[in-house]
Amino acid sequence: MSVVNFKNIDDICLIEINNPPVNAISAEVRKGLLKVVIELEKNKKIKAVIICAPNRTFLAGADIREFGKNVDGPILSDICNRLERLDKIVIASLHGTPLGGGLEVAMACHYRIATPNTKVGLPEVLLGIIPGAGGTQRLPRLAGITVGLEMMLTGKHVPAKEAKNNGIIDEIIDNDDTVSNGLEVAKRLISNNSRPLATCLRNEKFVNTEETKISIEKIKQKFALKHKNLFSPHAIIQSLEDGLNLTFENAVQNERKLFADCIKSHQREGLIHAFFSERAVNKIPELKLGKPKTIKKIGVIGGGTMGTGISMAALNSGFSVVMIEQDQNGLDKAFEKIVGTYDRNINLGRMSNNDKDSILNNFKGDTDLNTLSDRDLIIEAVFEEMEVKKDVFKKLNSICSNETILATNTSYLNVNEIAEVVSSPDRVLGLHFFSPANIMKLLEIVVAEKTSNHTVATAFSLAKNLKKIPVRSGVCDGFIGNRILSKYLVAIYHMVEDGASIYDIDRVIREFGCAMGPFQVIDLAGGDIGWATRKRKAPYRDSNDRYVEIPDRICERGWFGQKTGKGYYLYGKNVPFLTPNPEIEKICEEERNRAGIKPKKFTDEEILNKYISSLVLEGIKILEEKISIRPSDIDVVYINGYGFPRWRGGPMNYADKIGLKNILKHIETYEKEDPRFWKCPELLKKLVANNTLFRDLN
User: Which residue from 10, 21, 80, 382 has the least number of CB within 10 angstroms?
Assistant: First the structure.
């Protein structure tokens, strides 16, 4: 059976598209659709055409596996243009998520109807490209320039009601049967003698006026910081601006040229790598063997920053949450923080008072651990100290049933050791949320030695319900993300002690595309957190390892960053952003003198090379030890948890791009200076010798 099928019902042609699993607009779909359009151009009896996909979502966008390849198939843009020129009423009967090329096909139709659950969007910017089938020209004609640009520059999915209010959808029908919806509307339009209304002819919202220019300039300013390093957002704006002065036909040709430029971009490759990597995280052995348990009731132990964030993440997804704190004062502070967050969302128009009340009806605070006896899953988020956590798990072991899943939110500690105090350790694992947990998408799922397949499957199911991106990790100090973080911070502190400026390092890494430099991140998180970790590890540190004391000297002064008003930078009401702490360089000089180090200058290239090499060095060791299943999982962690530029595809993907031979050369050079820290992994040597890349291990 063809992926595109059609039949004539009297004077109506019904086109049904069925291309599993997601109805992507593959070459086969385009061939089939073009064939039908050519038939319709000849058929004078047909008065209306319905395009639908009753077995799955309406066309969900391009098949991105075809990007950058020579694929034998017609161009979607040409199909949309021919569809729009048909002398029959063409109706798109939508449901599900018509995104990208799917929405472009719908906009080329003359009439768009949708079921209430439909969401539409042009998310191409998230893949480093622009709409390439007339989207930059048709969407602003339907929705207006401001709405159209905002949709394309954010890639957001717009619900049916909002889409109708903005002119993208003509009618919402409260019926899930897209075939009957289409037939009903087609018959009505035919009986009313309605004529085709091509989107390309609708210019009431697409006018080249001074007001339009001002609107576009405002949008440019709004997105300037967010998209400063990206190519495709500027191409979207350029395509729309150019189109204001071109005929529709020439505007679409210009869009195709800009689309082709994006396809050649390394940013597109990085973003698509990130896209596929985030979908590959679920390909783990436990999900083939384990069956997820239904989770409805969640317990959270600890009302600090992580505990409140985890509680809100669960509440926002409809779970019943009981939070445990040591005393009523702690509970009151936690509840105040949760309420304050929801109040801010109300003030920003993100939710209503009714939404807030409904969410908080599922929340309860208590000081008695026994209140957790009925919970399906409990997440411990107490102080990062092994004995404290083990004490909590011992108590939970006697309170909860053997069916209750017990998770620790530890950032570094040994989950195997925590699991030992529980009579059935198969139900224990790590759920490492990232702060703020109600916003950050990454969730490291730490699988201990005795964690069962069912427990892992349940954790991945929970992550999906929480709208998180789960990444499986084995047990080691810091798991995937924090282990690499610890390693590259050591390398960076080595550079600082050798003479590099803290502020040059931050600048270089920001210019590389990271959201913040490492010292900004330390100030944001709090320098005391890393200090506590260093003190915890001190008894086990090899005396032959190089240890830089600069961060300890800073913490000893009580300079923990934003929370204390002073860290590597200064903070306060009238203090400009990124104001250096003038006393930092003095501390660095004193420590260099104490260590007997003669400072040297570092170029931007040298700083970046050491930063990337240290990330990749520890990433390779994590792969060798099977802490991470594949290199792309490391990329997902660093993109979603540590501000690594998404458009570079993650550190392992970036290493592939610059060449593993170059990475090996850098590491071997550094190894001569410090053979303990920079000991070159055998896996890297093997990959280079075999002329293979990290992507070959995915």
Answer: 21
Ordered strands of the 89-94 beta sheet: 4-9, 12-17, 48-52, 89-94, 111-114, 171-172
Helix (H) or strand (E) holding 119: strand 119-120
Q: Measured between alpha carbons, how far is 655 from 636 in angstroms, rounded to an integer?
A: 14
Cα 185 to Cα 50: distance, rounded to the nearest angstrom? 9
Q: Choosing from 124, 384, 591, 618, which is the catalytic residue? A: 124
Three-state SS string across 380-396, please?
ECCCCCHHHHHHHHHHH
- Is 104 designated active site? yes
DSSP assignment of 322-369: EEE-SSHHHHHHHHHHHHHHHHHHHHTTSS-HHHHHHHHTTEEEES-G
> Is 370 part of any domain?
yes
Task: Tell me the helices (H) and strands (E) count for the chain, helix number first.
Answer: 29, 18
Do 138 and 160 have their domain in common? yes
Last residue of a domain, one of 448, 477, 506: 477
Q: What is the mean pLDDT of each run of 10 residues along the chain (698 residues)?
A: 90 95 92 96 96 90 79 92 97 96 97 97 95 97 96 96 97 95 96 95 92 92 83 95 96 96 91 95 96 97 96 98 96 96 94 95 97 97 94 96 96 96 97 95 98 98 98 97 94 97 97 94 90 88 93 97 96 95 97 95 97 98 97 98 95 97 97 95 97 96
Annotated active-site residue in 24, 62, 106, 334: 62
Cα–Cα distances (Å) from 230 to 124, 130, 137, 221, 306, in that order, read 13, 12, 21, 14, 32
Shared domain check, 291 and 252? no
**CATH number for the domain including 690?**
1.10.1040.50
124 is catalytic: yes
Closest CA to 652 of 666, 636, 633, 631: 631
Determine what percent of the chain falls in helix, strand and coil, rounding each to the nearest 5.
Answer: 55, 10, 35
> Same structural domain for residues 241 and 307?
no
- Is residue 253 located within the same domain as residue 355? no
Alpha carbon of 275 to those of 19, 264, 270, 326: distances in Å?
A: 20, 17, 9, 42
610 domain residue, yes or no: yes
Helix (H, G, I), strand (E, B) or coil at 158: strand
Strand blocks (E) in 268-335: 297-301, 320-324
We report the CATH number of the domain holding residue 292 as 3.40.50.720
Task: Tell me whether residue 101 is one of the annotated catalytic residues.
Answer: yes
Beta strands in 499-559 (DSSP E): none
SS3 at position 673: helix
The verdict on residue 256 lying in a domain is: yes
Q: Which of 16, 60, 92, 104 is catalytic?
A: 104
In whole angstroms, give the CA distance from residue 154 to residue 233: 9
Give the active site residue among 32, 96, 100, 101: 101
Number of domains comprising the chain: 3
Catalytic site residue 92?
no
Strand-pairing partners, residue 320, are: 297
Which helix or strand (DSSP H or E) is residue 178 part of?
helix 178-191
Where a domain ends, among 234, 266, 298?
266
pTM of the predicted structure, to 2 decimals? 0.90
413 vs 525: CA distance, rounded Å: 18
Structural domain includes residue 259: yes
Assess whether 606 and 643 both reside in one domain.
Answer: yes
Which residues form the domain of 330?
A: 285-477
- Please indicate, yes or no, whether residues 44 and 105 belong to a single structural domain of this protein: yes
Whole-angstrom CA distances from 666 to 240, 486, 669, 695 are 44, 20, 5, 20
